[in-house]
Structures are given as structure tokens and as C-alpha cells.
Amino acid sequence: MLSGLPPLTLALLLAAGVLLDLLLGEARRWHPLVGFGQLAAWLERRLNKGSWRSARGALAWMLAVLPLSFLAAWLCASGGATGLAAHALTLYFCLGLRSLRDHTLPIHDALTNGDLPRARWLTSRIVSRDTTNAGEADLAKAGAESLLENGNDAVFGTLFCFLLGGGAGALLFRLANTLDAMWGYRNARFDLFGRVAARIDDVLNYLPARLTALSYALLSPGGRLRALRCWHAQAPAWSSPNAGPVMASGAGALGISLGGAAIYEGEVEQRPVLGTGQAAAAGDIRRAWRLVFRTTLLWVFVALGLGIALHLAGVQHA
Known about the structure:
Layout: H1 7-24, H2 32-47, H3 53-76, H4 80-94, H5 97-112, H6 116-124, H7 136-183, H8 195-218, H9 224-234, H10 243-254, E1 256-264, E2 267-275, E3 278-279, H11 282-312
Parallel strand pairs: 1-3
Antiparallel strand pairs: 1-2
Helix pairs in contact: 1-4, 1-11, 2-3, 2-7, 3-7, 4-7, 5-6, 5-7, 5-11, 6-7, 7-8, 7-10, 7-11, 8-9, 8-10, 9-10
């Protein structure tokens, strides 16, 4: 592991970062990831043209991610209270647990109150599909899918990389994931330019996604085998090698059906069905949030437990 911190210290900093995110939520002004998104958009406008698009995309990825990751590593290695604070604060800015709750539970509330126009507007803020004429089932499905998939991207993948590389590891993962979300589309504009960003995100997410899928299954006492079966049978058909296991296991754990038809850029896309049982309803958004939250607690307690065990065993550096 690359953080150089004692395992128990690293686990305590992880818990501190999660607690800061739950207490403070997403920074409303001057959020570093918003600034990073603007930098990424600027790089894309200047480099995504002409020939050698894949090479230009690789260069853009390095220019966007590496300097900031090295800066975070330098700050975290400064030692003392400053270095410890840098680890915890970097993790806080990279996490999106509270943000997931704040963006999805209002959809549940709007659907519960019968306010379909508001539910459509709220859902359009977090997904790329067309929600103009979406019904309650479509919006509930979109909200649950977003929670399950982004639980891995915005929370568990970040925690996994924090345990490997401290604040710098968490930042590198989150920046790479952000670039995949911005550039990793299979369309005329991004198919070549965003290919490197998509592949790097696939590699970084491979282990976290499968640990997330396993966690979703373990935290469903009545549906563990169902979640594992859905993961095994349905994930290979999903277009994303990492979102497939996460969403199939999560849908199986909740006992609902996700996937299916969705409208993107004016065209209906028939996606494979994930999970089993009834189509998602408004209440399943809240159930998906609870699953993500319980999984977060599981990861924090496991990290603390391992940290304590390694501390008692005399292991000095993670």
C-alpha cells in the first residue's frame, strides 16, 4: 500500500472523511470536482479535434489527472497534522454519499406526493436519459439505478482507493471516474477521444465494483443467493463490465427489476433486464439508498476492524 500511514490511522482517516461527507455534504461553492470538470471540458475542446484522437485523449487524461494527483500526494506526505488533515479532507471532497441521498430522495418524495413533473425534472439532473414523458416506474427505476451504480463510483471505489493510496489514491480514482463520465461515450464525438479514459476507469473500478456487488449481496439477508445469481447470470450482458455486476447484484438484493427500455438522445435503447421481481416503484429509491448507506457502514467498520487487528499485530505501515 502506498499511503505510508499506519493501518489504524488510515482507517480512522477513512471514517473521518465519511463522517465529514455525511455532516457537511457537497460543497456548494468552489467544489474542487466542479473546477476539475471545467478544466476537463477546456482540455477536451482544445484537443478533441484533428487526427490521432485516441492519443490526444490520452494526453488530455494525463494533463487533467496526474498534476492534481501528484499535488495531493505531496500535501498528504507533508507530515504531522497537516498531512493527516490533507488525507481526510481530500477524501471528503472525493466522496458523494450525502450527495447521492440529496439528489435521489427528493425524487422519491415527489413521486410519493404525485408530483410527476417535479420528479421528471429532478431525475433529469442525475441521469443522461430523456425523462420528458417518463412515468412513475421509469423514474423510480432511474433513481434506483443511479443510487446503486453511483454507490460504487462515488463512494466504494473511492474508499477502496483511499485504503490503497490515501488521499492521493482517492483523488486519482475520482478524477479518472469523472473523466469517464464526461468523455467515455460511444458516439461520434467521444468514441476515440474518450477511449483511454473509459479503459482506465474500467481497470481502476474492476475490484471495487466486485466488492461492491458482493457487499450488496451480503447485506440482503433474504436475497443473498438471488443477488449472487443475478450477478452471475445478468452482469455479462450489460454494456459496462463494472456497472453490470454492481447493478445486477443490487437489483437482486432489493428483489426488483431494473434495466429494460430507456430513451437516449431521442431513441429507445433496449437494455438487458437486471434483477428479478416487480418493476421498481417509488419506495425502492429509498430502499436503494438504505442499501448504499448500510454498505458504507460495513466498509467503514471492516476498515476499522482490520486497522485495529493490524495495529495489535504490530504492523506499522499500510
